[in-house]
């Protein structure tokens, strides 16, 4: 239900160029089959933010692709880049978004400074690399925010304090289809389960696995997914809900009412979340919240969360549209305190909405000949169908000035994913299976 962000264009020729580069980076020459987990704090407000308190940890395997190392999508407002320290060559990159990005657009974020935990995972380098944190600027381009040299052999590498959350037993294989290098590894972290809830947790794992793979295009690609469940409990059952005066000592500290929106269910405890995942092969994270109250949230390449409400079979795919696909919400909600991330003078970075500033970089080539731009709304299209592909006004929380591809989509009102969203999801899936 949440989410969204601002800027940039997906120039297809640029994408090809990146892909070619990516194929040319030889994984084994630069990396070993392990993961460098980097924990840090992002501290700031709307005016400015800084990165600090870094710590590093070596995880036992790398779950990502060995060939698709550079990010072909210019999506997200942040990007992590790993360069060879000697040659300066770009070896690995990924775009992502963060909860801080939303905080800074809230009324409180205008001037109050807050600290947010963030975690990125990159392949473990064989030799010294430059690690660069980039941030999208007002010109829509990525700029270096902070960078440093990381020598994997140095005794000075500050390894993380050992977490008390280390998993004693193996994660559950809810679905295993093969080598993590060629699969999309999704880890389900149970939240709000107490010591007596382990049977329910295992039942709920199965349900969430079904919801993950139940809708197109996930259903057709189900054999490209490994799904893992981390069987960990917290001290108590339930989910914190400040609006109802409920406070729960749960595994990863998730809460409703994030930034004052009742149904917005998120956690700020990223270090603990990644502690729970530990060495489980992980490309994407789902937090399964043990509550029947409607709610969820997701951020691109960060995590997705849904409660066990009766709508979870639709809420979860919607949230995965954000966290895996980097898709924008296609609905209108002009009351969102943290949602005003789009400016009408620039093309948004997400593939499924447009301001028509650079529509050629979006789904223009998919439009049937003769389609009017913008396309008049057709209120006769049933709620469970996309209707004809077009350019319909009202998306990205704004009633005017931002356009979506169809009348109804998973990213608007739980209809099936539209052709534009499905195309991007399939492109992202391909990044993990080659
Ligand atoms: Zn869509």
Description:
With 434 residues, the protein is α+β, with helices and mostly antiparallel strands. The chain has three domains: 139 residues, Peptidase M64, N-terminal domain (Immunoglobulin-like), CATH 2.60.40; 152 residues, Collagenase (Catalytic Domain), CATH 3.40.390; 98 residues, no CATH class. It is built from eight helices and 15 strands. A six-stranded mixed sheet has the order 8-10-9-11-13-12, sandwiched between helices. A four-stranded antiparallel sheet has the order 4-3-6-7, with no helix packed on it. It has a three-stranded antiparallel sheet with strand order 2-1-5. The protein is globular, with a radius of gyration of 21 Å. The N terminus is likely disordered. The structure holds zinc ion.
From the structure above, extract its key features.
434 residues, alpha+beta, Immunoglobulin-like, Collagenase (Catalytic Domain), six-stranded mixed sheet, four-stranded antiparallel sheet, 15 strands, 18% helix, binds zinc ion
């Amino acid at each position: 239900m949440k989410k969204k962000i601002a800027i940039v264009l997906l120039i297809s020729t640029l994408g090809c160029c990146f892909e070619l580069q990516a194929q040319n980076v030889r994984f084994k020459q630069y990396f070993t089959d392990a993961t460098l987990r980097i924990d840090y704090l992002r501290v700031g407000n709307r005016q400015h933010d800084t990165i600090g308190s870094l710590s590093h940890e070596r995880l036992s395997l790398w779950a990502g692709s060995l060939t698709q190392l550079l990010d072909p999508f210019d999506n997200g407002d942040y990007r992590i880049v790993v360069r060879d320290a000697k040659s300066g060559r770009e070896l690995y990159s990924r775009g992502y978004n963060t909860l801080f990005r939303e905080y800074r657009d809230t009324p409180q974020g205008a001037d109050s400074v807050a600290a947010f935990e963030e975690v990125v995972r990159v392949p473990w380098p064989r030799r010294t690399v430059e690690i660069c944190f980039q941030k999208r600027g007002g010109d829509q381009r990525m700029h270096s925010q902070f960078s440093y040299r990381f020598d994997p052999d140095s005794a000075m590498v500050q390894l993380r304090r050992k977490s008390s959350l280390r998993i004693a037993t193996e994660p559950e294989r809810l679905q295993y289809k093969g080598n993590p290098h060629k699969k999309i590894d999704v880890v389900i972290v149970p939240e709000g389960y107490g010591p007596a809830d382990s049977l329910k947790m295992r039942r709920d794992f199965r349900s969430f696995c079904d919801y993950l793979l139940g809708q197109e295009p996930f259903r057709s690609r189900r054999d490209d997914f490994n799904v893992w469940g981390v069987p960990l409990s917290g001290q108590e059952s339930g989910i914190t809900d400040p609006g109802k005066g409920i406070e729960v000592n749960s595994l990863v500290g998730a809460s409703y009412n994030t930034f004052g929106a009742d149904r917005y269910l998120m956690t700020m405890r990223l270090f603990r979340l990644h502690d729970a995942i530990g060495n489980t092969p992980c490309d994407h994270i789902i937090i399964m919240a043990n509550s029947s109250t409607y709610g969820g949230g997701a951020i691109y390449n960060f995590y997705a969360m849904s409660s066990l409400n009766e709508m979870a079979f639709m809420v979860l795919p919607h949230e995965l549209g954000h966290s895996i696909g980097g898709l924008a919400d296609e609905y209108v909600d002009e009351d969102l305190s943290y949602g005003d991330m789009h400016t009408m003078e620039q093309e948004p970075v997400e593939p499924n909405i447009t301001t028509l500033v650079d529509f050629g970089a979006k789904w223009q080539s998919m439009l049937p000949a003769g389609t009017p731009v913008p396309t008049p709304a057709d209120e006769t299209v049933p709620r469970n169908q996309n209707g004809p592909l077009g350019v319909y006004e009202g998306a990205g929380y704004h009633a005017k000035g931002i356009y979506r591809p169809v009348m109804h989509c998973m990213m608007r009102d739980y209809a099936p994913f539209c052709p534009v969203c499905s195309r991007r999801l399939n492109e992202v899936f391909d990044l993990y299976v080659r």
